[in-house]
Amino acid sequence: MENIDLTNALRKMITGLGTAKKRHAEQCFVAEGTRCVLEIMGHLRCRYLVSTADWYGEWSCRVADVEHLIIVAQGEIARLSQQKSPQPVLAVFYMPHRPERLSELNEGLYLALDCVQDPGNLGTIIRLADWFGITDIICSRDTADAFNPKVVQATMGALARVGVHYVNLAEFLRNVSLPVYGTFLNGENLYESELSTDGIIVMGNEGNGISTEVAEAVTRRILIPPFPDGRQTVESLNVGVATAITVAEFRRRSVNTKRN
């Protein structure tokens, strides 16, 4: 680890990582805050760790695989931060380069996202995937960038363990051997449906749901029913909430199947 100063060029590079173009040019992204930085630390290589002296004094025992350490005042971190209330640490990590494994999906549970555009929703879904043991999420190319600072923050470090892949989603789903589940308002009741242990669960856009092209590749349509049946409710659930309910039911069934 090398101690260096925060130069104007470095300051410009780090703030520039707020844009997708700069992130992909540098193959790096920014994580902010103690919990998020320490969760990712050890999983991904850290190019720059920027912190106050007090923060580093408290957490240096948890810092690993850091190329460059930059100790600054809190005001400098505030100038670099994308947050309204900056914490005393941020880090620039190299993007993960995971082996291509999408062609090998023949067992396990996976998520597919069709044009999920809100960074907070995507971050929440990545965090949910990590909690429920889903290792890979397949996204349409118009889904939000997983390394957007708001997404990274919402994942709380889960991005280090969950692979996020961008593909032509409709074409990809047409060529998989796993059952493909999709959430629709005219689907079969989730709690009364037969659910497999292995499969791909498709979640749609916040306003429009699953697109027509992707819907054609869905083999099982499911619905999260309101309670009680027939009661007037809101039109739909937030996509993050709907993902949590759906994945939890799949995992509950798989646990019960193993017990039986």
Q: Could you explain the architecture of this structure?
A:
- The chain is an alpha/beta fold and 260 residues long.
- The chain has 2 domains: 2-94, Ribosomal protein L30/S12 (60s Ribosomal Protein L30, Chain: A, 2-Layer Sandwich); 102-259, Alpha/beta knot (3-Layer(aba) Sandwich), CATH 3.40.1280.
- It is 34% helix and 23% strand.
- It has 10 helices and 11 strands.
- The longest helix is centred in the last third of the chain and has 21 residues, at 239-259.
- The model has no long low-confidence stretch (mean pLDDT 91).
Detail the topology: elements first, then pairings.
Layout (H helix, E strand, L loop, with lengths): L1 E2 L4 H9 L3 H7 L1 E5 L1 H7 L5 E6 L1 H7 L6 E6 L2 H7 L8 E6 L14 E5 L5 H13 L4 E5 L8 H7 L7 E5 L1 H6 L5 E10 L9 E5 L8 H4 L4 E4 L15 H21 L1
Parallel strand pairs: 1-4, 3-4, 6-7, 6-10, 7-8, 9-10, 9-11
Antiparallel strand pairs: 2-5, 3-5
Helix pairs in contact: 6-7, 6-10
